[in-house]
Amino acid sequence: MMNLKIYLLLLLLVVVVAKKDQTGHSNIEEGDTEEFQSKKGHESVRTPAGTSRQTTIGENAIEKFVETLMSSEKYLKMIDSVERKISHLDTVFHGKTNSILKYLTEMQKVLNSSSTESVLQIMNTLQTDMKQVKVLLREALETRPTMRGELYFFHILKNTAPFYPVT
Predict the structure, then answer these.
(1) Which keywords label this protein (predicted)?
(2) How many CB atoms are located within 10 Å of the residue 25 CB?
(3) How do residues 24-61 score in pLDDT, each as one tens digit?
(4) Host domain of residue 166
């Protein structure tokens, strides 16, 4: 609504300026002019009899102004859509960071509440699992060619059996 008001105000301004330019030319030939009284009645103003050239100049100015307004409106719409996308990304980012913080606090609670022996046991099983993954990935890379454009590791891991700690 505000854009429409600004658009109409600027359009009115251009029309007034075009009218002023149309009546204020000094390059008027003597044979092509007519005299008329202004609304005040005190002064006479000369305007060309064939004002088609001047009206086309005014119309061209109005058309250029309308084109710039339309392009400005397009840019404003683009900026608005970018702002909406940024706000969406901001909310997603905050949601993800909050969930990560939640998981980290849960891990900290578990680590603080458990004994050192259980933590060491968990760390050892994690270490053996990581070693098994490393061995499987090396074997897969040596036996199979890598695929372009895919995450080949996830394909291998998806088709293998789950890992169990070696005791």
Answers:
(1) Signal
(2) 15
(3) 554 444 444 444 444 444 444 455 555 566 678 888 88
(4) 115-167
